[in-house]
Design brief:
Mean pLDDT: 92
Number of strands: 9
Number of domains: 1
Order of helices and strands: EHEHEHEEHEHEHEHHEHHH
Structural class: alpha/beta
Oligomer: single chain
Strand content: 15-25%
CATH class: Alpha Beta
Low-confidence stretches: none
Number of helices: 11
Largest sheet: 9 strands, mixed
Shape: globular
Radius of gyration: 17 Å
CATH superfamily: Spore Coat Polysaccharide Biosynthesis Protein SpsA, Chain A
Distance between the termini: 42 Å
CATH topology: Spore Coat Polysaccharide Biosynthesis Protein SpsA, Chain A
Amino acid sequence: MDYRDQHTFVIMAYKSAPYLETTIESCLNQTIPSSVCIATSTPNERILGLGQKYNLPVYTNPDHRNIAGDWSFAISCAQTPLATLADQDDLYHPDFSSTVVQCLEKNPDLLICFSHYNEIDEETQKRPLNATLLVKILLLWPFYIKSTFRSRFWRRLILRLGDPICSPAVTYHLAQIKDHSLFDENYAIALDWDAWLRLCDLEGAFSYIRRPILDHRIHQATQTSFGIQGGKRYNEDLKVLQRLWPNWIARLIAWAYSASYHSNH
C-alpha cells in the first residue's frame, strides 16, 4: 500500500533548521509512505544538502514577505488531496499518514483533521503536562464526546476562548478547501487561529484524532516563543478574540490566556 498520491508532508524549513534531518526521517519512516517535500524561503547549504541526501524536492518561495506568505507557498507545493505542513522541529509518528488518510476515508467532506500531540524539549525528552497544553485539552472538550463536527456552531465553539489546535498536527483536505489562500498576512503568530475560524464558514468537517501521533518540540527559537517575548502573541490573540466577543470580554480572555504562554519557557 502507498499513500504518495493521497498525502504529502510539506516540511517548512527555515535558516539553520537544527532538527530538520530528524523531521525528514520521521516523515519518510511512515508505515505506509506519503509524499515528502521541503518548502523554504531561506535556501542554504544545509537545507539543500538534506534535500539532496534524501532525494527530496526543495521548493523555494520566490516572493518571501512574511510567514503567512511562506505557509501559503508551502501548501501550494502539495499535489495531493491531503497535505500536512510539517514543522522543521517536530517528529511525526510512523502511523501519522495512515491515520489521517483513514480519517478522510471516514469523512469524505473533511476540511481538516488534527491530532493530540506530545510536547518534547531540545533533547527530545517528553515535557510534563503544563498550563498551555492543559488549557488546549480543556478547550477541545466537545471532541472528547464526538470526534467529528460539521456544525459551524461546534467548530467555532472550540475556538472562542483560544486556539487549541496545534498547526503542525493539522492535515488539510485541499480538495474540500479549494483555496490555498488560507493564511492572512496581517498575522504572524495567530495566522492559524484565523484560518481555522474562516474554515468554520465552509461546509465540511473538522475531525480530531484523540491520541498523540506527533511530538511537538518547544524551544526558545520557535516563532511562538519569539512572539511571547515581544508581546505580539497577546496583541494578535486579542485581535482575533475581538471578532468573537465584545471588546471588554475579549481583553479579559486574552489576559487570562496569556498567563499560560510562559510555560513555553
